[in-house]
User: Fold these one by one.
Assistant:
Number 1:
Amino acid sequence: MKKNLDIQLQALLEKEQLRQRQGINLIASENYASQEVMNVSGSVLCNKYVEGYPGLRYYSGCGVYDQIEQLAIDRFKSIFKADHVNVQPHSGSQANAAVYLALLQPGDTILSMDLAAGGHLSHGHKVNWTHQFYNIVSYGVDPISYQINYDQIEALAIACKPKLIIAGASAYSRIIDFEKFAQIADKVGALFLADIAHLAGLIAVGLHPSPVGFADVITMTTHKTFQGPRGGVIMCKQQFAQKIDKMLMPGMQGGALMNHVAAKAVAALQVSQPEFLLYQKQVIKNAQVAAQECMKLGYRVLTGGTDNHMFLIDVQSIGLNGRQVEEILESVDIFVNRNAIAFDRQPPLSPSGIRIGTAAITTCRAQESDMITIIHLIDRAIKNCNQPQVLDSIKEEVHAFMAQLFS
Ligand SMILES: *Cc1c(COP(=O)(O)O)cnc(C)c1O
């Protein structure tokens, strides 16, 4: 095949590379994978069909892949001290789907966090397939503290007798007490799934309490705070291993994406290095400093701060909605996402919140003082949103800021 055949796509790739290099990325679910992770996910490992699990494959020529997958499994086991690991899910949502289909019957009750309060689509939101298959009961947060109220969850669990309780969120900035969730699940005879999609990197290095030992099953993504390739992982107690593995393959998928499985192994090795602990500590410090600075400037930060890599701002107080703020900031190459907040009265497409995360910008080596600079850039952009010339000059400052960060 001719080299560099697709010049159209090449141009788009270059554009995207520039966006990633020049822009400030504060999207809480994103990160930058290392060059080594990207090299492996775009390697010769793309070319092979690999179905089944190590030692039991449905194609010939899988010897190397047995070793790669086993390496990935062993590394995840050692990081999280998990009994059993499946590294094949293509995504976090698919990991969750495999768990539900393996352990529940259609019509069973799931007790999970409401999307509007910080939960995830795949936990049973109206527009998700899970809503059609299962009876979803949602818990929210406390109307005053905006934190999880374990008494409310216990009362709901006693009332609805769920088959499965899910802990885990996409937009929640405080410690999640997995032990308490396990006690509630125990009390009502429910299974307990901890979805640590966002928290995996923090949990891996002990900066957030681990659900291992408390949860029956744990699902995660490898591309958020874990800083690896896009993908999912399932960890579980031995007694659920066979059911879950079988449901994922052959139940739900054919060939695993072995390039991604290998890249997950690389990411797991990186997570085991001492530098990764320092990185995650900086992620949390950066989020805390940024949240403080927002509050100093008069923004309403939900829960008054953060224990992890992200926080939510209620932008109603400045007379805008989350969509407007997202668009203003995008116009100066600062990327955040609009987010519903608990008790939101605005529609989902223009909710009242924005979510700010520090995993990606900390990968670009941002420190606390950089976070203060960034928050002031955001504040100025918002306050000058009707002044195109000011916005243009802020955009130039954003590019200069990123150039200095990488220098
Ligand atoms: C991101 C996320 C997922 C799903 O991840 P995808 O890979 O996008 O499917 C699942 N659960 C939670 C809590 C998440 O934040």
Number 2:
Amino acid sequence: MYRKKNFFAGPSVMPVEVLEQLRDQIVDYQGQGLSMIEASHRGGMFEDMYDECLGLFRELLGIPEEYDVYFLGGGATLQFAMIPMNFLRPGSVADYIKSGTWSNKATDDAQKIGDVHLYFDGTDSKFTTLPDPKTVHPSKNSSYLYLCSNETIHGVEWQSFPDTGDVPLIADMSSDILSRPVPVEKFDMIYGGVQKNLGPAGATFIIMKKSLLEKRNENLPAYLNYQLHAKEKGLYNTPPVFSIWAVKLVLEWIKRNGGAAGMQKRAVEKSSIIYDTIDGSGGFYRSPVDPAYRSRMNIPFRLSSDELEKKFLSEASALDMLGLKGHRSVGGIRASVYNALPVEDVRALADFMKGFQKRNG
Ligand SMILES: *Cc1c(COP(=O)(O)O)cnc(C)c1O
């Protein structure tokens, strides 16, 4: 089977084995005479699969007992509003670290709900760097400190995380979840859309320390209330069944391939191939990102002119390398090298980059 080389930022590449499993099981799930996507979410067939999925997620990330884990709809974007609605207490502030497009959107929503303290604003650096985690201390009277572990568009990624003491730490990990082990105990909430590293779009994972719920605001509409979702394990209303089923298969694939540590090894290997090519190009390719915070998942880079970048993209797409155009807000090139992207595809991109430089340098 021929597969294009998929560098899309999201939705993004899936493990081919998982696509084949979905194909093979979509009509008749494990010989039960029924498809998973036809079954009631209140029935055993779905519930058994869902429990397995949540169990695997806990196992792979080492999520302690005192955390709830479940999936919701609405994308990561719905969480931008739900977090301040639930946890930004009147009379207090929430600390936000604005490090790129995604944390910026979260900040905008929070500002509509309550008082936001912009702890860090990367606007002036064009979102190419982060604060040193050792120097990050939340405000007095802070409801929580919010960060995005990997800015998918700008390509900056936290390599370690701040200690926020008693102040809850909340993180959007949409685009680097399960690409490395994470010290879950440091966080009160971790969430993200699944469509970057975990499966097809639809589901949003929520990992939340149970004690965080004790500090929540009251009187929220049902779907916006985490307390209700925690109680129902995400099954208050119909969950995104197909997406969750596919996530379960991707989690099994991650487990077979060395778990979070195995994914970290792959991520370091693949991203190094591209960064080494950029750094070894004598300035032909330029990474705008502070080397201390370079993302292992999304690698933006520039060439010397818009024209040359256009030529690069059109030659790459003729070689079936997809999704390399940088986000419209920043321009340039971006290679997303998520968990499921084969290392051979990354080598092919690096070879193309070297050849393109020879022909145009
Ligand atoms: C893609 C992305 C989002 C938005 O996810 P949706 O599921 O489309 O709402 C939020 N945060 C980060 C870091 C992302 O990469």
Number 3:
Amino acid sequence: MKTNIKTSSKGIKNIPFLDLKLINRPYEKGINAALKNAVASGWFILGDEVKKFEKTFAEFCRVKHCIGVANGLDALVLLLKASNFPPDSEIIVPSNTYIASILAVTLAGFKPILVEPDLDTYLIDPAKIEEKITRNTKAILVVHLYGKCCDMESVMRVAHRYDLKVFEDAAQAHGAIYQGKRAGNLADGAGFSFYPTKNLGAMGDAGAITTNDDALAERLRAKRNYGSGKKYVFDYQGLNSRLDELQATILNVKFPHLESENFIRQKIANRYLSEINNTKIILPPADTANQDAWHLFVVRVENRDKFRKYLTDNGIGSDIHYPIAPHKQLAYREWNNRTFPIAEQIHEEIVSIPLNVVLSEKEVSYIIEKINKY
Ligand SMILES: *Cc1c(COP(=O)(O)O)cnc(C)c1O
């Protein structure tokens, strides 16, 4: 038996789902050098590195404003809080998402209204939004889950009809393109996360908000910094949610490689899409006109535990994003008796297979071969 790649003593390959040490290794030297300068500068809050990152990321998304914040959850909370909706406002969010999207609505003081996803795309189903709109509905928070942009054309059409704001949870979609525009530039405002595992990841918590709305951007700049536009003058009751200067330093080193890394992700995803041909495995849809950020490659399979055990036995790491639907979490116990059948089915059947920039072609071939033999 040929033992070419990472073969353990038992002859089983070991392909981790994600190895953060390995994915950051190419940037280690650059980051260490940049951090040394940042430390020597003696300026640790809202300095030149944060400014540089905000400018770069705004240009990348082709938006007027980027406001660095402490993390992705705060980005969404601040966006909603700065929108000045009345206290009893309802915000539409998908029932199939990472809990942060829903928590953001609650933490901002509003009521999340869950809308089911499309089973094939895993994304909010625009056809199901209208029936959930009431007099109190003020906004739709879409989530570009797993790196694929939502059907924004349909979402914007409904929003326009009812005069609703639309915000993007773009925490998994750095660099994704929808009809020629980047995620972060598809609606009234967007929240990004630079949590270490994201397509652009810091080495700690970090986030950002993008928007083309000048007045909203000005409020957000103050609100992430105690509500202060001018030192010791407070116009709002804000948060302390600034993008850390050292995390911005790291992001500035890694950012220039985001697009080439996304391209590697696309290549791997395209191989999975064209070469996995096991009828037991339901693949995600290919991106046709648009460009997916391929944060995760999520398949559906009937007996998930059995499939994951098979992968583990063959040395292939996997993960579940996410195992329990938000409305089934104790955090939202008041919703535990409600049913969102599509979100529930997705949460029961999904498995994320390795998709990251350090996978070799041989490893991808090995994963495809093993999945086809399942
Ligand atoms: C990661 C993530 C967030 C939250 O980001 P943090 O930086 O961890 O707060 C929000 N929404 C989605 C969809 C995410 O994947």
